[in-house]
Request: fold
Amino acid sequence: MYWQTSRYQIDLTRPQVMGIVNVTPDSFSDGGQHDATLAALKHCEQLIRDGADILDIGGESTRPGAPPVSLEDELARVIPVLREATQWGVPVSVDTYKPRVMQAVLDLGADIINDIWALRWQEGGAGSLDGTAVVAAHPNCGVCLMHMHREPQTMQVAPMQGDVLPQVRDFLVQSAQDLHAQGVDKARIMLDPGIGFGKTVAQNFALLARQAELLQAGYPVLAGWSRKSSLAGMVPHRHPDASLSATERLAPSLAAALLAAERGATVLRVHDVKETVQVLRVLEAIR
Reply:
């Protein structure tokens, strides 16, 4: 199995590690650490040294309650990093939901569009672009379609209700089939259940426990558990009111990543690349 992208056929016979590059001042985990171009590029280089298979560059925070970023600001953050990173011999993904950003980064050689809106976002106005049309017009780019309940500003105010798995699976399968109907080959499509995007803690863990049911749809799955708020409560029972900060969530993030890979996820989107690669080597050894 492989993931077809603009320049690479990514081997999915082993889990691929996607390193997160937040070129933002306000991301929930590492906002402001890499918001300047030089700092972001140094971070990219470090992630590659640590073993990242894919870089995922984002110019807008999508944490719960995050305000939207203008098209101009997002492009100004992402484009200088992308231009350099595409020269480094690894697939480069861009985390965006704006069709004009998608078009710009694909024109510059980006390999993957990673969209939390699953190509549903509409920019409006005369001459507006459609994300589905942008992706469909490209001959080879990869695309990751994510499930999100509501939108970043409201998704945790009123999370999903009921059995989360069939709702997420049906949405993602329909989104993939709609894209396939526009001529996008199935090998280009990856699905992401959207851990933390409008789900309760219990629903997030249900998606991990029942991940095999999502895989039955026949598409590869990306798991994005790294430093998510559902892991914040993984503290000893003697501290019932304690909570782990984003940077203290390494151990539960690694546990969730390992379980997701063991259950068939083929791409792990993570902040802590070096440690995740080490954990996956244990999985590879027992296999």
Q: What stands out?
A: The longest helix spans residues 164-181. The chain has a mean pLDDT of 92.
